[in-house]
């Protein structure tokens, strides 16, 4: 990977971001619903007061002008004030982003740790009971609604067994100084093992709920690609040479079989980051997904625009990482 | 042992609650609450949930008791000097959370910040409209503030509990943006930490002046700490209550009432709400411009059945726009459920084969709207429910000058002040914002305008009675019900009761 390639990728980001900005802006502008009316709600207001509010929010200007103002400011990383929070959008998003990233990463780990061994087992014991169970399980995993599965976990582990918390990120007696915003890291930096354990307990149910569909997908991908690899000549050759089965499986087969799994995982990570608002709602997880959905309903334009831009950048970067991983795992491919 | 099993075992041990019990302080009263505060600035929000949290941190000049009576809080007394002038004597010895004393200057600064254009760093407070026609706020003596109105506005006292007093020196120090996340109120609790989107953690303010003298007990708050824990999903809120993680939850769904009541240690508490539900019938459309069709619609809906079966008995039927608890509410003639008469009225109106209409509503009310639609359909008003999103529907149905396009709109309007002014006028005055029915009655407009500025309480009450009779006869809306607010509460909580304005005042709450 040369510096030139890296630069090329970064330059490629610019049209993507411009396109995303334009699409989001136009879509928000075309969606019925007036931010001022929503903000005022049911209270009495005179037309003058309404006009004043519209002016304060910058909504009195024509759409095209508003778009260019937005672009100009965004180029300087100024995404404006959130209509509802009385603070810059970037500050509001920055507060919520670490919780989302932390949950997504743990969900990714849950998915990888479960899916790869299961996928490999299902492949090497093809058509066994375990394989069939794994197939049915993965079908369920993809089709179970996260909302329903999350509530089910809460009822079992929090209400009946009372061993895991229903919602939140950490208990209220724990005071962890914020360094990175990731509680698992901050608790360790503070040397507070009890708080670390507590943060982990709060993560378990949301991470399992969020990671389940990804687990199912990755398991299927691993199984299929493992089966394919196992049919290759070099595996037959390795086995014919009399290499131990374990060595053939893990050294020769798995390394190649994991290539699609890793690419899919990197791309799926993007959907974890963007698509976890349901899990965040069910588990009261103070992440970005919930904030963005609330903001869409309230037509909090500046926040939605900034968040969607952030999602776009994340997707592009994750794709980029997937490409790099692909070349690492498969040196025949060059970027 | 291999690395992986070792790691798994370590994780299991680390997460085992027996080894690492969640640290909980004994006197934490935790509220499972639907929405986080947007800001902690009392002058820069328009959301009820934000106000609920803020009002445990900040006090107002006036407040309301559990029966919704307006009583002095930071003010010691209120005197109406003339039709447009009110004097407020400020109680002495009130401290802000930073230890400084509250003065009349702080009150003037707070009210100016809300009412003067551009007073918040060039921006105007979105709560300006809640203060009506305020002309000026002046300090007339060391402990007295005078509010002067541009015109008589008798509901000023009813609206003042919506505004909380901030410290002038503190706002000047931290600025408007600082006040969004930090606080210096005079309320019973002070902010410990705001974990955005997760929780607002408050602790007792030991130098609290005691609060409104008309609301016992007067003194410091009972519990050490109060935590608003944000749990937007209602099923999770109920689970948190049942698991003992929280002690009070708001917006308990009616279908979960039995579960909470049957559980040891929890109970259901209800209070009459302030939100009137109704169906707007588009009088600018083709069918509903005829009063007979509107009457037919009203007669075909069995409100009692829906309240009983779908709302679990937690709503009061209404025959006008006002809640039974609102000022000016009175007994009104009932449309009454009469399917045959409804059908006959449709025929009389020239629709012997019935009519086909759509009814807009939001997702949250889909079930109830479907039940209503099936009743209307039986009478010949064949109704299809169309579920839309709140912002999109209010855009479609709010008055904006052009005629409205839909047929019916199953919706509601809040009346937190319980004064008719902020529900009657917007929903019924010609071309007012919330007049979804497109109703236009000049006689009613004149009456509502006169009632809004009438100072004689009894005369004003009679005027609203007359207005209610007018709309009851004209039936621009099918008036449905006022639902109760439902809370799930741990039996460990004492001294707290739900309030009709949805405020969760935790000053008096104790934990056993």
CATH A-level architecture of the largest domain in chain B:
3-Layer(aba) Sandwich
CATH class of the domain at 95-296 in chain A: Mainly Alpha
Sequence stretches where pLDDT stays below 50 over 5 or more residues of chain B: 1-25
* CATH homology-level superfamily of the largest domain in chain B: Periplasmic binding protein-like II
CATH topology of the domain at 95-296 in chain A: MetI-like fold
Silhouette of chain A: globular
Number of strands of chain A: 0
Number of helices of chain B: 15
Number of strands of chain B: 20
Number of domains of chain B: 2
Mean pLDDT of chain A: 88
Amino- and carboxy-terminal Cα gap of chain A = 7 Å
Averaged pLDDT of chain B, please? 92
Spans of chain A with pLDDT under 50 lasting ≥5 residues? none
Please state the second-level CATH architecture of the domain at 95-296 in chain A: Orthogonal Bundle
Tell me the strand percentage band of chain A.
Answer: under 5%
Helix fraction of chain B? 25-40%
Q: Helix and strand succession of chain A?
A: HHHHHHHHHHHHHH
Please, could you describe this protein's structure?
- The complex is a heterodimer of chains A (335) and B (512).
- Chain A has a domain of 202 residues: MetI-like fold, CATH 1.10.3720.10.
- In chain A, 75% of the residues lie in helices and 0% in strands.
- Chain A contains 14 helices and no strands.
- Chain A is globular.
- The mean pLDDT of chain A is 88.
- Chain B has 2 domains: 290 residues, D-Maltodextrin-Binding Protein, domain 2, CATH 3.40.190.10; 209 residues, Dipeptide-binding Protein, Domain 3 (Dipeptide-binding Protein, domain 3).
- Chain B is 29% helix and 23% strand.
- Chain B is built from 15 helices and 20 strands.
- In chain B, the strands form 4 sheets. In chain B, strands 1, 8, 9, 10, 11, 12, 13, 14, 15, 16, 17 and 18 form a 12-stranded mixed β-sheet that branches.
- The radius of gyration of chain B is 25 Å and the shape is globular.
- Classes of the chains: A mainly alpha (335), B alpha+beta (512).
- Chains A and B meet through α2, α3, α5, α7 and α9 of A and α1, α5, β10, α6 and α12 of B.
